[in-house]
Amino acid sequence: MSLVTMNEVFPIAEEKKIAIPAFNVDTLEIAQAVLETIEEENAPSIIAVGQAAIKDGKLEALASIVTLLAGKMKTPVVLHLDHGQNFEQVIKALRAGYSSVMIDGSTLSLADNIAVTKQTLQAAHAVGASVEAELGAILGSEDNISHDDSKPFLVKVQDVVDFTSAVDVDALAVGIGNAHGLYKGRPNLDFGRLREVAEVCPAPLVLHGGSGIPADMIKTAIEIGIRKINVATEVRLSYVKGLNAESRSEDYYTMTNSGKCCVKELVREKIRLFSRR
Ligand SMILES: [Zn+2]
Q1: CATH assignment of 6-274?
Q2: CB of 173 within 8 A of CB of 139?
Q3: CA of 254 to the centre of ligand 1 (A)
């Protein structure tokens, strides 16, 4: 089927009280492995393209690949720009056929974040695409997106109220102590803050930095109201792990097939965890 927007998959998540997984893809082979597993599991999902892939010149090529592969599937797939850096990049993604975009104004003042999100909403909604925004910093560093760890990072409840009354976003990513990359030890997620946010936020909530968050914490986050969980680092690492396992074969397909197997295993595990199967 054709690509869908987040607005088509969130009602499914809300009804079942699950989270929709968002998997970052960086290559054709990773996209093949992720999409195959999504179809096998019949799990509506989001395919995200992040800033490292875009820096590598793949914003359009990955869009074409995902659109083509998703077109042959029965399971709904969203093609999403991850951490859109500015309005220009959002426009490039929309022109390339993304059905959903994130605008990351989290490093800006609240007023500037509202302004750029408003601009993004107008453009994206005009072409039928959905929009995710971000409040509060997501810690760690990935794809050149990093935050100064010394600054306050927890999302402020009043900011959520002010932000969502000014802009009608389709999803909101919040910083509750979550981080990009892998965690050193058990993550320190502030579920109290997440509960307060969930009470006042009309938009589905998004948890970034899903790589390495233990199963019990994922379950709690979903119970509180998280409806999208991003997994990027673990997808890439599992592919590399698979390649390395067969590197001595020096055979391209032996290596990439091994990488795809590892990605499929990880994706299946996350789909089942996020849907509490
Ligand atoms: Zn993120």
Answers
A1: 3.20.20.70
A2: no
A3: 32
Distance 53 CA to ligand 1 centre (A): 14
Q: Could you give the maximum distance between any two Cα atoms of the chain, in Å? A: 57
What is the predicted pLDDT for the residue at 277? Answer: 64
User: What SS3 class is residue 228?
Assistant: strand
CA of 42 to the centre of ligand 1 (A): 25
Query: Residue 205 in contact with residue 192, Cβ under 8 Å?
Result: no
* pLDDT digit string, tens, across residues 18-73: 999 999 999 999 999 999 999 999 999 999 999 999 999 999 999 999 999 999 99
Residue 108, helix vs strand vs coil: coil
Cα(180) to ligand 1 centroid in Å equals: 6
Q: How far apart are CA 124 and CA 133, in angstroms?
A: 12
Query: Taking a C-beta distance cutoff of 8 angstroms, is the pair 156, 166 a contact?
Result: no
Q: Comparing C-alpha atoms, which of 191, 167, 184 is closest to residue 117?
A: 167
Q: How far is the CA of 41 from the centre of ligand 1 (A)?
A: 24
Q: How confident is the model at residue 185 (pLDDT cuts 50, 70, 90)?
A: confident
Tell me the residue ranges of DSSP E strands in 25-129: 45-49, 77-84, 100-103
Condensed to tens digits (0 to 9), the pLDDT of residues 129-170 reads: 999 999 998 877 655 555 555 445 899 999 999 999 999 999
Which active-site residues does the annotation give?
82
